[in-house]
């Protein structure tokens, strides 16, 4: 009835599909009246309903005045020859009738209902004195249908309640053994954590002894004015590396077990079991706290190892010229710079792996072509810059060589490659964990803060090509900034000054808008590139304007979790920290350099210790 009322005033609907709706003659009478007034509906499907001859006669009357309807389908109803004849003899040449010859046999109930509707129609067509009896019939018919529908709904509700009760009982029985299994695993996990803490205490004690031993040897060397005992230091460095490797293996084993346990924690629970789920969440939270405590102790231990490593490596070095080695030694170390030793190709040359003579030391050798003036300038710039740097987060240059039309720089070897390679999982390497990514961010900010402040205010250095390809990782995933071929030196520079250049060298996605538009460089120029690195660490996406736009939209709509690297598998405790890192990245990517934080501020934020 409501549809019929709407059709009387509707001016937009052109097709109406009412098949399989149990429409009888009463409903068809209302539709026929609506079609007399409607001028827009062109197609009407009334298949598989309960329409009898009374409804067909009403539709036939409507077709005598309606010139808009062009298609009417009436198959699988209960029309007899009387109703079909009425429809076919309307004289309407516009409307095509379909399915009239495909009718079904009505049930006794349908016959009774349609006979009543026919009587009501007859009453409606008689003088107004019979209108009251017709309406009374329609109301009675509607009340009977309402009672039948209420009965069916009550039966269906009872069936649903019974099914849900059975499902809750089954779910409760299934959860009990799983709950007990999870508690057992948590107990084992706590025992493992206690064992790891004891091992860490023993390692710290051993390290303290090593530090004391090194200090004693330093005093002896100073008293006797002897040269550093490189072989002894190399042996001790190897011993420390073995300790770190053992610790890393144990941490990895613990992380694997954490992931297995986390997978169990993700089993869906019914709402009725909320109390048990809350208890399990509390147990997982306790386990996460212990994991964080272990990770913090691991970071402190590795930091101590790194400080010892840097001290041993550099105690024979002073801020002076880089040692030169024979070019032939590098030819031998790289098998004449063969493709088998090639690590990668950079802007000014190729990088090979090799091993220097004497105590075996793995190195990376950058070979630049002397024919290129730009390459020679990069060689001199990087040589001058790295001769001044001695820092745990700056790549260490060991030697240089020149000969046979080429220039070479010899660096410490970084076995875990670049951050970009690790984000891409090159050579099927495992993805970086969140703790590793956060430490990389802190390491880069520490290294760049040193670059900008080591000689301040007499000199300020601009890297100009800071990117994930130029951030390398050692055996313990400590990050070191490399590739200083584009470094620019600015004497007597402060945070209020700027430097103008027409030489726009660098990598496009990492270059700040002010540099591209006006050639203006400030101490915040490299901060822009660092912001792009932070977004790469959180998403693993390639750098670019699109990545920055996506991050801004995610922060604005509070959907940061949707843009994160799926390989992160973050915990509830880690997600707020990641959100803060994305927000910090966007601060670094501000178009106006004055609105960006300094590396000193970034270091304090990322490494508050």
Automatic annotation (TrEMBL):
The keyword tRNA-binding does not apply. Gene3D superfamilies: Phosphorylase Kinase, domain 1, Ribonuclease Inhibitor, Transferase(Phosphotransferase) domain 1. Residues 179-314 form a coiled coil. InterPro entries: Kinase-like_dom_sf, Leu-rich_rpt, LRR_dom_sf, Prot_kinase_dom, Protein_kinase_ATP_BS, Ser-Thr/Tyr_kinase_cat_dom, Ser/Thr_kinase_AS, U-box_ubiquitin_ligases. Pfam families: LRR_6 (PF13516), PK_Tyr_Ser-Thr (PF07714). Residues 337-604 form the Protein kinase domain. One of its GO terms (molecular function) is protein serine/threonine kinase activity. ATP binds at residue 367. The keyword Repeat applies. This is TKL/IRAK protein kinase. Keywords: ATP-binding, Coiled coil, Kinase, Leucine-rich repeat, Nucleotide-binding, Repeat, Serine/threonine-protein kinase, Transferase, Ubl conjugation pathway.
């Amino acid at each position: 009835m409501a549809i019929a009322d709407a059709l009387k005033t509707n001016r937009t609907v052109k097709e109406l599909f009412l098949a399989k709706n149990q429409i009888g003659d009463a409903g068809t009478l209302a539709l026929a009246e609506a079609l007399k007034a409607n001028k827009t509906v062109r197609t009407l499907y009334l298949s598989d309903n309960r329409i009898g001859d009374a409804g067909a006669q009403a539709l036939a009357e409507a077709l005598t005045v309606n010139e808009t309807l062009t298609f009417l389908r009436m198959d699988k109803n209960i029309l007899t020859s009387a109703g079909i004849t009425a429809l076919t003899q309307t004289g309407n040449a516009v409307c095509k009738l379909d399915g009239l010859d495909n009718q079904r046999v009505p049930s006794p109930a349908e016959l009774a209902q349609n006979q009543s509707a026919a009587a009501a129609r007859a009453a409606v067509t008689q003088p107004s004195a019979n209108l009251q009896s017709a309406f009374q019939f329609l109301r009675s018919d509607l009340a009977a249908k309402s009672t039948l529908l209420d009965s069916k709904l009550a039966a269906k509700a009872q069936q649903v309640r019974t099914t849900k009760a059975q499902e809750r009982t089954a779910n409760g029985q299934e959860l009990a053994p799983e709950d007990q299994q999870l508690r057992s695993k948590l107990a084992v996990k706590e025992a493992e954590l206690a064992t790891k803490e004891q091992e860490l205490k023993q390692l710290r004690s051993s390290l303290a002894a090593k530090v004391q031993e090194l200090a004693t040897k330093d005093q002896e060397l100073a008293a006797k004015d002897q040269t550093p005992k490189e072989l002894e230091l190399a042996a001790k460095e190897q011993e420390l590396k073995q300790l770190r490797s053992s610790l890393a293996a144990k941490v990895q084993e613990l992380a694997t077990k954490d992931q297995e346990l986390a997978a169990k924690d993700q089993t869906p629970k019914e709402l009725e079991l909320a109390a048990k789920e809350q208890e399990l969440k509390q147990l997982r939270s306790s386990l996460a706290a212990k994991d964080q405590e272990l990770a913090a102790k691991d970071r402190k231990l590795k930091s101590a190892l790194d400080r010892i490593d840097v001290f041993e490596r550099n105690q024979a070095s002073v801020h002076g010229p880089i040692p030169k080695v024979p070019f032939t030694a590098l030819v031998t170390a790289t098998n004449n710079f063969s493709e088998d030793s090639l690590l990668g190709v950079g802007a000014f040359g190729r990088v090979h792996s090799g091993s220097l003579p004497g105590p075996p030391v793995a190195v990376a050798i950058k070979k630049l072509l002397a024919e290129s003036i730009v390459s020679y300038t990069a060689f001199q710039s990087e040589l001058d810059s790295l001769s001044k740097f001695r820092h745990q987060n700056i790549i260490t240059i060991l030697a240089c060589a020149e000969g046979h039309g080429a220039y070479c720089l010899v660096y410490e070897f970084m076995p875990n490659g670049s951050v970009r390679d690790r984000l891409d999982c090159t050579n099927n390497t495992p993805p970086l964990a969140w703790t590793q990514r956060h430490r990389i961010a802190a390491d880069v900010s520490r290294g760049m803060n040193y670059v900008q402040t080591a000689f301040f205010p007499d000199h300020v250095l601009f890297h100009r090509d800071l990117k994930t390809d130029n951030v390398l990782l050692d055996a313990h995933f400590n990050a070191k900034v490399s590739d200083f071929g584009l470094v620019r030196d600015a004497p007597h520079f402060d945070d209020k000054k700027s430097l103008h250049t027409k030489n726009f060298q660098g990598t496009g996605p990492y270059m700040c808008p002010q540099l591209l538009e006006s050639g203006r460089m400030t101490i915040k120029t490299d901060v822009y590139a660092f912001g792009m690195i932070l977004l790469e660490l959180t998403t693993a996406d390639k750098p670019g304007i699109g990545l920055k736009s996506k991050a801004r939209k995610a922060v604005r709509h509070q959907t940061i979790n949707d843009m994160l690297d799926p390989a992160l598998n973050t915990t509830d405790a880690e997600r707020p920290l990641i959100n803060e890192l994305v927000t910090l990245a966007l601060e670094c990517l501000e178009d106006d350099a004055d609105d960006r934080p300094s590396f000193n501020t970034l270091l304090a934020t990322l490494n508050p210790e």
